[in-house]
Amino acid sequence: MRLTRYSFLVPALLLTLAAGAQKIVYSEPARDDNRRTTFEVIGKVGANYLVYKNNRGRSYITAFDNGMKDVATEVQAYLPEDRLINVDFFNYPDHAFVVYEYQRKNVVYCESVKVDELGRKLGDPQLLDTAHINAVTNNKIYSVIGSEDKARLMVFKINSRNKSLYRLSTVLLDSSLRELGRSMHNIPMEERDDNLGQFQLDNDGDLVFTRFTRVNDDNIGQASLFYKAAGSDSLYVSDIRLDKIFLDEIKIKADNPNKRIFLTSFYYTKRRGNIEGFYFYVWDKATKRPVLESATALGDDIRREARGDANSRMAFNDYFIRNIIVKKDGGFLIGAESYYTTSRLNNWNRWDYLYGSPYGFGNYGYYNYSPYNSWYWRNRYNSNQAVRYHADNITVLSFDPTGKLQWSSVIHKNQFNDDADDAISYQVMNTGGALHFLFNQDEKRVQLLNDYVLTPDGAMTRNPTLKNLDRNFDFLPRYGKQVSARTFIVPCYYRNYICFAKVDYTNP
Fold it and tell me: Does the keyword Signal apply (predicted)?
């Protein structure tokens, strides 16, 4: 049931605002879309913007037009209400794919459905894979990843029943979800503290991921890169040599223009020491050799600028790598954010932080994956303890192809929230000529949506701020999504309701 303007009139939601190069249009909230609603911004399909919603187990897709008016809300009846485990979305110009998994008895099914610009089902569900388990589970069995150009998708699962030998099963698909190949690989997990890291699929359909060993469950002392070519049934392993350094969380990025794989991490010179800088490892697919292995220390100037309340030596100890952009010349841009929690009951411990590794053990012999900015999985890590979440400064650094620092820029912010971190942190929008960093900032008890613009030469400026027109109106930028070259859809709260805002940029 939709709220009428007579029963729920919100002037702020019926108004289009312009400030500088920005224009924001808000949707009207629906009565059933409250703070407990699970949602995901799917993207632009045809002329509409699609958003997935789940209320009390029932799944919907809402289509908004260019003015953010609700033109259709379609029940996704093929998604089970009782045993739905996970759902992912991949949008294309005239359709989107819904990839989902659910359990029936002792079988977990991974299926897909194609929907149109109104969220209507096009054809019957397509079975992608099945897994047999021994009990009821809410944990993910399958992960679905896509290439940057969306030409290739991959469904994979990792059987971890044998703790010393994992089994990776993959299904490679094209952009129409036609199967291109299946493979199965054994991954030795010889050390007790061995873990698997981030998985990436490049535009050629090649799969890359890391395996690493944490020393006593904290810093990484050993790591390897695994590479599977799209047309190959074998895994190639390249050991990463760590000479007298320890790594933090390994991030991986496909460098599609240069046919390379880029890995980076913060590094330490001693266990649980201070973060010294960035470690870089660039691996060439053609030669199957690293072209860069480098540790770049961060100097005093950038430490003083980035530190917040910490001393210079500890300036980056609360930072996490959030963004990686690989440049055409082989250089790279890294965005990192200071992020931590405080509590009366427990001290902050970086190595216990849930984002330290995206993977964890499921209860029934499968490795499961929960991405950082997925609203679907957000509540599964919340604690009942009184916790305050903090998201402070953002530091952006540009490096040349040799790993030499070219410039750095710091956005000074101070965000916190009690018991949940939904409204803190940030999101990035790339308009081609600039990067926009969007985040909330509390000023005089009013939430302001801040927009900082970073140009390719490292210059940072602040766009005119868009004030919320109601004190109960809050943006959730970290769960937003760029849906076109100059358009960003961001969820927001009004009182106890969820709605969505479209941010358009007319200039870079």
Answer: yes
Domain residues for 289?
142-297
Dihedral sign, CA of 497, 499, 503, 504? negative
| Rounded CA separation 187/170 (Å) | 13
198 in any annotated domain: yes
First to last CA, the chain: 39
Helix (H) / strand (E) containing 303: helix 300-306
Q: Are 391 and 440 in contact (CB under 8 A)?
A: no
**Residue 195: C-alpha distances to residues 90, 143, 240, 280 (Å):** 28, 16, 15, 20
Report the domain count for the chain.
Answer: 1
**C-alpha to C-alpha distance for 353 and 360, rounded to whole angstroms:** 13
For residue 126, tell me if it sits in a domain. no
Q: Residue 269 CA to chain centroid, in angstroms? A: 29
Instruction: Give 414-460 as a 3 state SS string.
Output: CEEEECCCCCCCEEEEECCCCEEEEEEEEECCEEEEEEEEECCCCCE
The angle formed by the CA atoms of residues 45, 50 and 54, to the nearest 5 degrees, is: 150
Q: Identify the CA nearest to 426 among candidates 457, 459, 386, 454.
A: 454
Condensed to tens digits (0 to 9), the pLDDT of residues 186-203 reads 999 988 878 999 999 999
- Tell me, what's the pLDDT at 64? 98
User: pTM to 2 decimals?
Assistant: 0.89
Q: 417 CB contacts (<8 Å, ≥6 apart)?
A: 388, 389, 423, 424
Other C-beta atoms lying within 10 Å of the C-beta of residue 401: 15
Q: How far from the centroid of its chain's Cα atoms is residue 339's Cα? A: 15
Q: Is 354 helix (H, G, I), strand (E, B) or coil?
A: helix
User: What confidence score (pLDDT) does residue 16 get?
Assistant: 40
Is 450 inside a domain boundary?
no
**Three-state secondary structure call for residue 16:** coil
Residues 127-150: tens digit of each pLDDT: 999 999 988 778 899 999 999 999
